[in-house]
């Protein structure tokens, strides 16, 4: 076999190996990035899903507004009761209205909390499914890359054994085997 053929075969084999190693390195980086994104998604879900609803600014604002309105209503009711001489039954009726308003406010907060949890779960599952799809695609690409490397290596090795080597004998060439 000629020196140039040997160098060509070694170069081809080196190219196959370098391509395989480079591909494996890129695939590891991609898998690491996908794993990182999956963990970030998990952390965001836990933060949103398990948060204390009462610590949210919108809930704090709702409660603050309710307290102010209740305080104003109680003050107005007391002033009116003093002027009109309200009966205990009238005062009880006003307290009942205030209790119903509190109940409605707490119910609204609970509904908001459930909606926030539902949204967090939906977002989490959508993002997780997307990332797992990306990961599955990456696995499929890895398999295809390794199949291609194996095929190229087989073709290279096959060409070693199927390519006839010729020697010159006078004016004609004959196989060297």
**Oligomeric state, counting identical vs distinct chains:** single chain
Mean pLDDT over all positions: 81
Major sheet details = 2 strands, antiparallel
The number of strands is: 2
The chain-level structural class is mainly alpha
Taking all Cα atoms into account, the compactness measure Rg is 38 Å
The residue fraction in helices comes out at over 70%
Strand order of the largest sheet: 1-2
Number of helices: 3
Low-confidence stretches: none
Shape: rod-shaped
Estimated share of beta-strand residues: under 5%
Structural commentary:
There is one protein chain. This protein has about 180 residues and is mainly α. Helix content is about 85%, strand content about 5%. A two-stranded antiparallel sheet has the order 1-2. β1 and β2 form a beta hairpin. α1 (about 5-50) runs antiparallel to α3 and α2 (about 55-85) packs antiparallel against α3 (about 90-160). The protein is rod-shaped and about 115 Å long.
Summarize the structure.
By secondary structure, the protein is mainly alpha-helical.
Could you outline the blueprint of secondary structure elements for this entry?
Elements: H1 3-49, H2 57-84, H3 88-162, E1 166-169, E2 172-175
Antiparallel strand pairs: 1-2
Quick tags:
mainly alpha; two-stranded antiparallel ribbon; 3 helices; 85% helix
